[in-house]
Recover the amino acids of this structure.
């Protein structure tokens, strides 16, 4: 598996995976991913040969030097490749980047997504809030989770 910055050529596949991974929700479009890249957010793709792009992850970096915080926007892995450590590897890459800025990291996760919640807890996240009906159109609730900044 190879992690690399997400490129425009990856965006159609990202949108395809969104539809598979988030049925009953409002999956991100090619344009949504393009907007994220154009606005300088940090996005990675996970590539496995010969399958190609099998996962993506991204976060925003907010603030000014010395006062940064990060927000993970998404992590998605093709169902055929889940359970192989790809999501964990992408999360670690995002956290490593945040750690270079000593930035706390925030995210939202569905309250029923036990595997993701477990992964986040293993990497230092704690639940700090609950957002009712956060995901639309399903109305699913989300936990807000946070991890403090880590100085490297």
């Amino acid at each position: 598996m190879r992690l690399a910055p997400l490129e425009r050529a990856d965006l159609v596949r990202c949108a395809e995976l969104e539809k598979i991974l988030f049925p009953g929700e409002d999956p991100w479009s090619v344009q949504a991913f393009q907007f994220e890249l154009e606005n300088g957010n940090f996005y990675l793709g996970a590539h496995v040969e010969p399958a190609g792009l099998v996962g993506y992850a991204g976060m925003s970096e907010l603030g000014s030097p010395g006062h940064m915080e990060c927000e993970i926007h998404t992590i998605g892995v093709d169902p055929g490749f889940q359970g192989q450590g790809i999501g964990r590897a992408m999360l670690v890459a995002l956290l490593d980047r945040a750690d270079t800025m000593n930035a706390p990291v925030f995210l939202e996760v569905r309250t029923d997504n036990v595997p993701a919640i477990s992964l986040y807890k293993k990497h230092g996240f704690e639940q700090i809030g609950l957002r009712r009906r956060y995901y639309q159109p399903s109305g699913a609730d989300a936990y807000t989770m946070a991890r403090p900044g880590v100085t490297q």
Residues 2-147 form a domain with the Aminopeptidase fold (CATH 3.40.630.30).
